[in-house]
Automatic annotation (TrEMBL):
Belongs to the UPF0718 family. Keywords: Cell membrane, Membrane, Transmembrane, Transmembrane helix. It comes from the Bacteria. It comes from Nakamurella panacisegetis. It is a multi-pass membrane protein. The keyword Transmembrane applies. InterPro entries: DUF318 (IPR005524), UPF0718 (IPR052923). The chain crosses the membrane at residues 24-45, 57-83, 95-120, 132-155, 162-180, 215-236, 248-264, 270-294, 314-337. The keyword Cell membrane applies. Its main location: membrane. GO terms for cellular component: plasma membrane. It is found in: Cell membrane. This is Permease.
Length: 338
């Protein structure tokens, strides 16, 4: 007879995983609370913050949000339904042709710069030369249609800004790509593992998580950027901003550094740039050229994806090229420093 003690214990009942709200649910709850308590929040903000701060902040957020939503929808759809091989099929082998073509292909990827880093990494894994993949990484968030439409809405009084941004973003991507082709070293990047299969998850399995991640990340940076812009417009003495705007070199450097540290999403940065009324238009173009190419969050993402040796070399080169190109393009399109 079998001893009862020798019998296997019955399997323990499986516990249901506890529900933990994600960042999107938390963001939606905060947004709903703000809508329901908008009158109380408005009176509180009026007491705590300077007059006009909430007006500038809300105006930037309201103008930029539709483009942000449209951008993450299209970006998620491309990640889910367009195979990565689509971008490598027609890529020339010569760098002098591959880099400009990769830069132009950036117009086919609506979305913010956060999504371009993993895509560039995937392109390198598929055999695309690094210089071409990096040109694509820089151009996609700067020249895609959603970013250009958002820029047109933000700068209705200055329609040439759209074309200036297109040319400046594309030139920055191509120049940095060609510089990296000439000076870059494989040892500066993490070792790459060639993919053995083209099979990837597609459809809603990719679309929904991509859209949720892009939206929550980009919306957070939009709120931070709008708050910073509102603060600069209301807290910083107007005489100081006029002094910055009156000194071309100081305005260019200030806007370049702001673009780096504010780390805005490229689908909403035009509305922040347009709010700096005392900054000359060339300075605003520098802001729009530097931001999608290099900022503090991109530096962190590139360090994690490609390696720190890469990031500490790539970021300074991109920053300098973006400022020079932004200034040159601004002088070409606007005929002066105004």
């Amino acid at each position: 007879m079998t001893d009862v003690r020798d019998r296997p214990a019955p399997p323990a009942p499986r516990r249901r995983p506890r529900y933990r709200p994600g960042s999107l649910e938390i963001f939606a709850l905060i947004l709903l609370t703000a809508v329901l308590l908008r009158s109380q929040l408005a009176s509180l903000l009026t007491k705590v913050l300077p007059s006009g701060w909430s007006t500038v902040f809300v105006a930037i957020c309201v103008q930029a949000t539709p483009f942000l939503v449209l951008g993450v929808l299209v970006s998620g759809a491309i990640a889910a339904f367009v195979p990565a091989a689509f971008f490598t099929r027609f890529m020339p082998e010569r760098a002098v042709l591959a880099v400009p073509l990769a830069g132009v292909c950036g117009i086919a990827l609506p979305g913010c710069e956060c999504g371009s880093v993993p895509i560039a990494n995937r392109l390198m894994n598929r055999g695309v030369r690094p210089s071409a993949a990096l040109a694509f990484l820089l151009s996609a968030p700067a020249i895609n249609p959603i970013v250009l439409v958002a820029t047109a809405v933000a700068f209705q009084a200055e329609p040439r800004m759209v074309w200036a941004r297109l040319v400046g973003g594309l030139l920055t991507a191509v120049i940095v790509g060609l510089v990296w082709e000439k000076l870059g070293r494989p040892a500066w990047m993490k070792p790459r593992l060639r993919e053995q299969s083209d099979s990837e998850d597609t459809g809603l399995k990719v679309f929904l998580p991509t859209m949720r991640a892009d939206f929550t990340q980009a919306a957070g940076f939009l709120v931070i950027g709008a708050a910073a812009a509102a603060t600069l417009n209301t807290v910083v003495p107007r005489t100081f901003m006029q002094h910055v705007g009156g000194n071309v070199a100081l305005a260019v450097l200030t806007m370049g550094l702001l673009a780096f540290f504010l780390a805005l999403c490229s689908e909403s940065d035009a509305f922040v740039a347009a709010s700096f009324s005392t900054i000359p238009v060339v300075g605003k173009l520098v802001f729009l050229t530097v931001g999608p190419a290099v900022d503090i969050k991109l530096f962190a993402m590139q360090s994690g994806t490609f390696g720190r040796k890469f990031a500490v070399r790539f970021a300074p080169v991109t920053f300098v090229v973006a400022i020079v190109v932004g200034v040159g393009t601004g002088l070409l399109f606007f005929g002066g420093w105004r």
